[in-house]
Amino acid sequence: MTPLPPDLAAPPYGTGTLADVLPGAAAAVGVPVERGDLPADPLDLTGALGGARRVAVLLVDGLGADLVRAHADLAPTLAALSSPAGDLSAPCPSTTPVSLATLGTGLPPGAHGILGFVTAVPGEDRALNHVQWADDPDPDVWQARPTVFEQAEAAGVPATAVGPYAYAGSGLTRAVYRGATYTGAVSHGDLCALVLRSLAAAPRALVYGYIPELDLTGHVRGVDSAAWRAQLAFVDRVVEQLVAGLPDDAALVVTADHGMLDVPDDTRFDLDEEPALADGVRLLAGEPRARYVHAEPGAAGDVLHRWREVLGHRAWVASRDEAVASGVFGPVDDDLAGRIGDVVALARGTWALTTPRLEPGPSSLVGYHGSLTATELAIPLLTARGSALH
Fold first, then answer.
1. Which pTM does this prediction carry?
2. How far is CA 130 from the centre of its chain?
3. Where do the domains of the chain lie, and which CATH numbers do they carry?
4. With the C-alpha atoms ordered 242, 247, 248, 253, is the resulting torsion angle positive or negative?
5. Which terminal residue of the chain, N or C, has fewer Cβ atoms less than 10 Å from its own Cβ?
6. C-beta neighbour count of 57 within 10 angstroms
7. 8 A C-beta contact, residue 251 and residue 265
């Protein structure tokens, strides 16, 4: 067993992760949430939201807790919100499809099965990019667990998901927001209006909103850029409008799917320049800070040895069994384990494991996430309450 190094951490599933947010919000409005062995509301959002009958959960992609603190002057509304449980943790890998599925189901990745940005499709010689997913594999089969939205609807609480118009009907949308009425927004202003309209439409309601642009700006320009800071100010204005428009008996919860860090040129490891790392490899999946390596039959041991030897201090390199045993994915269902590589490589420090030939776009980004450093894992939990709530 190769333990996690001290600079990487396993998410504390069931006590303080993104998986606990939507179940807690649903429990606060009276939904009897079922999460297997996990408690329904370990964050005590029921208490923190002061008797709210309607709750909106806003997820801002890429809004890491460290980034919020570092730029409080640009985000005064966010900085002024209460933080009832401190920082939470993103799941593993700390990447958007995994996090959105973790939020939507209230379960760790090992239970819902969306285990990476790109994962192998077991039994087939191909990979699935979860953000370019339509209907193959069938989203209802690939992610078969009931969502919190489905549980809300079953309890008679209307559930609405508000996100970009272009994402309506995608495989990921269907897999993680199933049970909610998906309402496509065409702008930040439209998102504000749609979230507030959905909150006001019923005596009890669970509403979810998703903002992707901060993450995209961070990837392309970096989190230490004027563009990223300007985008954060826009996000803060959205939150300001949502808070101002809350019905008296409603509450708002703001969170994120992961943090982000910039990767300088001198900590980019080009996998294409190390041909030995391709020996015995059938499929390379994941992303630059969280790699899944699928080996040819019988080659897993040799591949593991080579990746460990070549990457050295740059990454935690483990076998699938070691990675599962470490708890980073939570308990992993046996029928989902094949989506994890025979070898798992999680980047340390600011390293990124790029492959410009295979992935020219992802390999040329400025900002990254996916691994288990504190900056990538720490996400905020911020709340605001309507005027009638105690």
1. 0.98
2. 12
3. 18-114+132-260+374-385 (3.40.720.10), 265-368 (3.30.1360.180)
4. negative
5. C
6. 24
7. no
User: Which three-class secondary structure state does DSSP give residue 131?
Assistant: coil
What is the CB neighbour count within 10 angstroms for residue 15?
15
User: Please, what is the end-to-end C-alpha distance for the chain in angstroms?
Assistant: 50
pLDDT confidence of residue 2: 82
* Residues 276/310, Cβ–Cβ less than 8 Å: yes
Per-residue CA distances from 133 to 129, 142, 199, 364 (Å): 6, 11, 30, 22
* Cβ–Cβ < 8 Å for 176, 114: yes
Spell out, as residue ranges, where the chain has pLDDT lower than 70. 390
Scanning the chain, the segments in alpha helix (DSSP H) are 21-28, 45-48, 65-70, 76-80, 96-105, 109-112, 139-142, 148-154, 171-176, 188-200, 213-221, 226-245, 300-311, 320-326, 360-363, 374-377
CA–CA separation, 287 and 345 (whole Å) = 10
Phi then psi dihedrals of residue 245, to 5 deg: -95, 5
| CB 385, CB 244: distance < 8 Å | no
Token pair of 121 as six digits: 């499709």
Q: Residue 207: name the closest of 226, 187, 185, 229 by CA.
A: 185
The pLDDT value recorded for residue 321 is 98
330 — alpha (psi -120 to 50), left (phi > 0) or beta? left
pLDDT at residue number 179 = 98
pLDDT of residue 388: 87
Longest Cα–Cα distance in the chain: 64
**Interstrand relation of 352-354 and 268-270 (parallel, antiparallel or unpaired):** parallel
